[in-house]
Here is the input.
Amino acid sequence: MHIVVCLKQVPMVSELPWDPRTGRLMRGQAEGMMNPACKHALEAALRLKEEHGGSLTALCMGPPEAEEVLREALALGADEAVLLCDPRLAGADTLATSHTLARAIQAVAPDFDLALLGCTTTDSETGQVGPQLAEELDLPAAFNVEHLELTGRALTVRRVYDGFLETLEMDLPALLTITTQEFAPRETPLGGLERAFAQASVRVMDAEAIGASLDRVGDKGSAGRMLRVYSPTAQKKCVLLTGAVKKSVQELFERYGDRLGGLIGQDLASEEEGHDQ
Amino acid sequence: MTNSRDVWVFGDYRNYFQNRVTLQLLARGRELAQAQEGELCAVVIGHDLQQWVDEYVAHGADRVLALDHPSLTAYQGETYTSLLVDLARERKPAVILVGATSFGRELAARAAKRLGTGLTADCVDLRLDDQGRLVQTAPGFGGNLLAEIVIPRHWPQMATVRPGTFQELPHDYERQAPVEWLPLPAGLKPERVRLVKSERLAPREQALETAGVVVCGGRGMGSKKKFRNLVELARLLGGQVAATRPVVYARWCEEGALVGQAGRQIKPQVLFSFGVSGAIQHTAGIGGAPFIVAVNKNPGAVMMQMADVGLVADANQACLALIRELKKRLRS
Here is the structure.
């Protein structure tokens, strides 16, 4: 059993230096942390490894600092860590990212049985890399998984999808994305972290080493082009209701009852006869 | 064949939110199609589709492509992707819009990958610029930032949009539009993922991550006892209760309800926020809900600025007043 887990380092938002007026980000100055859903995916991988044996490869694409999340994965029990670090990989959208990760997995773990990812990241939040990686690797896959069971080569997973609780089955090799609902991550042991930082066991690879086509990675391989980034808080118009509580609440329903009702699927606009003030 | 100027909307009909988001996308898609003199086309895949086809025509579709077959009764990622991608290759729409439901996100991501094009997630606005490019406005960092994105050299331009972002058009059941009932193509690969069981969840059984309505309380609720009032409000709204870090530290509720950078990442359609100041560690987890109602004594709180409607009031008093008002309205 060989599991590959893809991890992403995201900026710790509390430290994120950005100008609320221009909305310009200084990503290079931000403190990094392991993306929350990736932590849960790593936990799922560790539990599978404990139960079924085998090996665990942690993979991360990012700048040199992203090595930290791989050290963390090694401290928790990953056997091998690979950092995809190459300026030519930077600026990738999900199309380019999924190509890069697919090439890397085929290069470092061609015999893998299961690929695990977090379902979404806190910085770009697209949730697209998992499905697109499954496409490129041509694997059976399930997304937003909360529970999984492996019997031989048969994988049974459970997930909540659009208000349905679904149970799905597939055979290995397969790909799953994991939510933050279950697989609460374990604490990183301090001793393990020290050892993981002392041992130089993170393998660093560039675009050539993983055999990626240079026109399909990074900014060059991306289809989306950003025109501008700005802060919406400066623009969102909040309607303030400042009267007595009861009056404000009634005003809320009178003005937004249709919209609220539409969103929650209930008729809230019409008040019962006889209650009109 | 050159690319058309048509705008496609995926007909995600499975349940209420999917149904509404399709109608909402048809409304915006219609504006985009008319602006570039193209057709607005609804593409619906599944079984027993007549009522949905009628609904899409009534809500503004100029044409409906329907793939109706008993083997398509359950949503299937691989099969639906193949069908959508084959149709897109054949007819070359300029734009494909998909509702950002769980399935919609998967389908759009897979299809964009197979078509080798760009896909912008969770767009909050879509417009055409003077060169006829689709300008997609999408959030990042939990809605704290917005980016404008174009897909200039790839085809088609694809976007997902969350339910509640656009307003649907009033229906017109007199409206007529051509409907093409397409046969299931031969040689479809069998789905490798087998659906063993699927049960519809009552809203209250849904996880925080997928809840459509979230009622979130912060320190401003005042006490553990008052915090419990949020549970009643959430029950009436068919939603889930979430909390900020001070509330979890004070043990007013269980740790699993913590939303933010260190806790759960939620994406509700509606967020009610009571007595929450709006520290970025918390707001990073609320995913730019399309409609936010905040209650705070301080009108200058960050959470109030992020909200669509802000009630300047005591959080618990407002919660109790909302419960009373909702009970009246839900009864009627």
Summary: Chain B touches chain A through 110 residues (CB under 8 Å).
